[in-house]
Design a protein that fits this description.
alpha+beta, about 400 residues
């Protein structure tokens, strides 16, 4: 009997039996066995369901995880030793002969009314997906209020067709969403790990919208300036603007600013030279205001970055308006300061006369010596302020 029992037990192990019962079978014991088997089957089923949930979660999260890899590529932060592993884990494929990054920049000053910026961004992204992604095996990344498209090229000269498609996209997205989008296109690179270099060119290309216009595609390879490009001096133009601020009306100030910008932007100016011009212009305004005893924080705003604000402006017309607004604020401050100064000037003269009225030798020259001004200027100001 023992031999038979051993053989049965041996066979049960081979068959991966859950339990092994000997006759006579007790009903209570049999019930416990079935309960244990049920519990085991339930655990296996839960594990299978958990695996399915994880798979579903993985597939749902895959686009976000892929986008994080694309951002690392754009920032040049993806290490070569991990690249292949991450591409495989996140099902990322790069199979082109060449690659190019395009920055889809949404104008913050020309948005359609009644739509949130985040919703507008989603709408522009959807249009980009429909118009550009399929043909160019594109990969889209949300980038701080803008969108980046990483495109694959079968050959280098396909970038011209890509540029034309991006230009057409700008017109379509304006019509469909109302958004003003400028697409900056970087230089062609040969490997995914070089995409960060192409992206730098795309950012630079977008900066050229001041000179080449917003709402279009700008390819950095087509518009990058030569080494012999020159930058005219802004000193004379600024001097004229400052003179108009002191002596002219709003129309005169606007005319001087428009003339200055036409001289600078009217030539093929490189983006670096343009930025230098903007910095010189803002620095000049700061110096001019400070020399006239104006608190420039009241002009630009306490925590404002005037340089960044000026460089972010998307068109020559908008820059003219911004500069006119700043210049007219300075003009108003100077005018108020001048009125306050002349009133103080007159009051000091009156006080001096009152204190020295008994002096029989008191003359206008003595008053003027006290005020440290010429008698001609004093007489003009005094008459203007008092009518006497």
């Amino acid at each position: 009997v023992a031999t038979y029992e051993f053989e049965y037990a041996k066979e049960a192990i081979k068959l991966e039996a859950e339990e092994y019962l000997l006759k006579p079978i007790n009903s209570e014991e049999l019930a416990k066995v079935f309960s244990r088997i049920k519990e085991g089957l339930d655990r296996e089923l839960d594990e299978e369901r958990n695996v399915d949930k994880l798979k579903n979660y993985y597939m749902e999260s895959l686009p976000l995880m892929q986008e994080s890899i694309y951002m690392a590529l754009l920032q040049g932060q993806l290490r070569d030793e991990r690249k292949a592993e991450l591409f495989e884990n996140y099902r990322i494929e790069f199979s082109g002969e060449a690659y190019v990054a395009a920055l889809l920049h949404l104008s913050s000053k020309n948005r359609p009314e009644g739509i949130e910026p985040s919703l507008l961004l989603m709408s522009v992204r959807r249009t980009a997906s429909e118009e550009l992604v399929g043909k160019w095996h594109g990969k889209l990344v949300n980038w701080f209020g803008d969108i980046v498209l990483i495109a694959e090229l079968e050959k280098d000269d396909a970038v011209r067709e890509f540029t034309d498609d991006c230009d057409r996209f700008c017109r379509i997205v304006k019509k469909v969403t109302g958004a003003l989008v400028t697409v900056g296109i970087g230089n062609i690179v040969k490997a995914p790990e070089e995409i960060s270099e192409s992206f730098k060119g795309a950012e630079s290309a977008v900066s050229y919208r001041m000179m080449y216009g917003s709402g279009r595609a700008i390819n950095i390879a087509e518009i990058a300036p030569g080494e012999d490009s020159s930058m005219p001096s802004v000193e004379d133009g600024l001097r004229n603007v400052f003179h108009k601020i002191k002596t002219s009306d709003e129309a005169g100030v606007r005319e001087a600013i428009e003339k200055l910008l036409e001289e600078i932007i009217g030539i093929k100016t490189g983006i670096q030279q343009y930025r230098i011009f903007v910095m010189e212009m803002i620095t000049g305004l700061y110096r001019f205001g400070s020399s006239n005893r104006i608190n420039m924080e009241e002009i630009f705003g306490k925590d404002a970055d005037a340089y960044a604000e000026a460089l972010s402006i998307g068109s020559q017309e908008q820059l003219v308006e911004w500069l006119c607004e700043i210049s007219l604020r300075i003009r108003e401050k100077i005018s108020n300061e001048r009125m306050s100064s002349t009133k103080s000037f007159v009051e000091k003269a009156r006080e001096y006369v009152s204190e020295n009225y008994s002096n029989k030798d008191l003359t206008i020259e003595m008053v003027c010596n006290y005020l440290a001004v010429s008698s001609a200027y004093f007489s003009t100001v005094f008459k203007k302020e008092t009518g006497k």
